[in-house]
Amino acid sequence: MVQASSLQIYFTGFQPVSTRFYIMRLHHRGRKFDRITRHERCTQCLGSLGGKDWLITVAPPRETSQPRLEDLVAFRIPGSCFIKLELGTWHAGPYFDHEVVDFYNLELSDTNIVDHFSYNFLNKENLQFEIVG
């Protein structure tokens, strides 16, 4: 278990830093995706409420504008855990089979405006993925 005092969260290149911790309610999303996103200036923490498991696909940061296909890895996250995405980590998700899941999210208050870079596999490579298992 990670102690709250030992969790290091990074926000770079922003003065002053304004964070937000919020709950987002997502409706059934299935397991298919064709886009992946990264945040180059902040880490992100994400977890579900109510003990509901969920899925995410990640790839390590790269200096190019797209992840390598061979680096994509999917994980099932137990509902009792949260994750921290390091700077620049490519991520697709959360995905889940439940009808509704509430997630808590910690990030910069404007992450999705100023630090949101996506790669569209469908448009660029005619690829779509499905998390199985």
Gist of the model:
The protein is mainly β.
Describe the structure.
This protein is mainly beta and 133 residues long. The protein contains two helices and eleven strands, in the order βββββββββαβαβ. The chain has helices at residues 111-114, 121-125, and strands spanning 19-27, 32-33, 35-38, 44-48, 51-59, 73-79, 82-85, 90-95, 100-108, 117-120, 129-130. A four-stranded antiparallel sheet has the order 1-9-4-7, with no helix packed on it. It has a three-stranded antiparallel sheet with strand order 6-5-8, with no helix packed on it. The protein has a two-stranded antiparallel ribbon with strand order 2-11. The radius of gyration is 15 Å and the shape is globular. The chain starts with 18 loop residues before the first strand and ends with a strand.
